[in-house]
Amino acid sequence: MIANAQTITVVDEFDEAIENAMVKIYNKEAHEFSIFFTDEFGIVTLPKLNIIDSVLVSHVSYRQISWGLDQLKKQRFRIMLESNNHFLSTSFVRHNPDFEGQKNQTNRQIKISSKNVQFLNPQTSADLVGLSNQIFIQKSQMGGGSPMFRGFAANNVLIVVDGVRMNNAIFRDGNLQNIINLDPNFVQSTEVLFGPGSVLYGSDAMGGVMVFETKNPRLDSISHYNGNVMLRTQSANKENSWHVDMGYGKTNFAGITSISIYNFGELKMGANGPKEYTRPIYTEYTGLNDTIIKNEDPNVQLFTGYSQFNFNQKFRYKFNKRNDLIVHFGHTTSSDVPRYDRLTQQSKGLPKYGDWHYGPQKWTQLNARHTLLFDKKKLADRMVATLAFQNFGESRVERAFQSKIIYENVEKVRVYSANIDFDKKKGKTDLIYGIESVSNFVQSFGSISSIDSGYMSANVSRYPNSSTLQTMAGYASAKTKLSSKMMASAGIRYSYINLYAPFTDTFYSFPFSEIRLKKSAFSGSLGVRFLANASTYVFANIASGFKAPNIDDMGKIFDNQPNRVTIPNPNLKPEYSYNYEMGLFTNLGGKVQWMINGYYTLVDNLIVRDDFSLNGVDSLLFNGSMLRTQSLVNSSRGFIHGIETQIQWSINSFFELKSNFNYISGKTSDNMSIRHVTPNFGNTSLNYKKNKIMISAYANYNTELAFEKLAPTEQGKAYLYARDANGNPYAPAWCTLNLKTSFKINKSLKANIGLENIMNKRYRPYSSGITAPGRNLVLSVYSVF
Length: 785
What we know:
Distance between the termini: 24 Å
Shape: globular
Number of strands: 53
Radius of gyration: 27 Å
Strand content: over 45%
Helix content: under 10%
């Protein structure tokens, strides 16, 4: 057996796999070293163990270890590394991250590991990115989650899954929930790039990029089966969810199948907080009309429950040492999702809506990623080609209180994309370059029907039907070591955008029959990193980003807020961001690590929603009501600045104290607050790790956002907020205390117990339409087989 190939597994103190650990073996016959790297499951295959004298294993985030062959056999080829507590260590490139960590980057980046996700146990993928405590999550309903960071959100931040952009032509400027289509239990790693990411990713990457890599099938020299099972329940919304994934692999072929079912009931808020957040009444249609009913428990947010189903199938085939193909099919669908914030709106003292819900939200994806390692390596060491198809489906259904008329909009978007990316390392320089093509095809339909008779007829659609949006781009980015202490990076991208939106005069007669937009844009970045000494470094970066108007921006017809309807603006222009950033990291005596970075972002041609008229007409009859018209327009400029800081103190081998805080402020050139600039927020935690137990006691907190600091559009949404002493809407400060524990019962079974919002605080995150959970007991069990 010793003469044959043998797999080695590298794990951390909690038996979690360590990816990209370097395994260096000494060949006692050839008197030379060979280097291997573990895969995403912490596994590496070593040939001919009988000629191996010793094995050295190292990783940037862990203390290295060296074992002889006898000790390796004694531990059954399983190596455990101890963490060195570098909480900022991360890696980030477009595909297959392989850089050493934050100290080798010139801009702000973070990584959320799969083991942290499993410990903190997020309910959705929106909650997953919120685990970083660097990203603010807004929710209009429980089946939602809109990441907001550095003053940007919605279609100004980009979501990338397995190298494919999720953002499509109808991602809106308002808060959106598409990120929850992604199954958090099928995500292997999550990385976040802060600031403009347009050089690598193009339009929409104004505020940053969230990069998700899902689980990949595992190849092995010995055929194997493996899998995971997760069961979870929560008291605040009576969750009943489960996940299972099963894998099979051998030398050149592997597959993995994943199924998740999530069921959420009505969400209960906390008991201590603003009364404005409670749900004292609700409506129910009796077959004749809508009846107002008193809520027996005003803290229960009726009509918030929903369910979701996720299926993923991946196959991997390795033709030879240089050719590796991964094919992924995924499908997500939900039940109807009630729009809770709309259901709580009132008009003249009565509920405004009898019904308002999203229909099933669907996302189907099919992509193939081919990795080719070149032999002669003249133009590149590696090529990654990705072809992808995505199909999005969503709908909106609304009915006014005491009305029998139902208005429905249905949207379908097909997206075809192709990326070819190259990596080249020459001397001290790493170069990546590539081309991209993305095509969106939008179908949009409107209908009107009667709740009694079922009669249906066509109505105005949300978007112009048969709209298209195409982009083509080329980019190049390089990073080089100028000296032992100095590193520099630079990148550039050229993008071309072609938008077409046809309009008919069936329902509304606009002074144009179509909207066409043909624009090109350059994006660039330049950064440096300087190592002052072995424990301190500074980094600085200048980068530009852009946001080309999409079909939602230019062609939407929708009642976005009380007594307002948004209409198309054919003259909307792209907006651009210019970001300046500088940061410092230092390790004080090996026990305390501190990071601080500041940024300043200038946004040109800032897109905001404002009152708008066409041909002197400023009102429109929409779904039976005469509403004031608004549109997205280009304001002159926006200015956003902020400071982010983190500190970690390793008290001893068992305890550590972490804290971070995010300060942010933003105004337009006419001194108006910017909508997606959040309150200041932070997190402090005391963590304990020993043997098979992990405990974290932590506090999450937000500062107040006074009425005067709310954006004008938010000031008009009083139903979302508490009231100050003057009766004006505002977002109060809040703080929650929480406790999470994890117990490893045996080699294959782990239990997590959490108690969130221990003080039962009633609070609502900024701009959210739903109140956060009250005291919440979370139980989950993970099993590996």
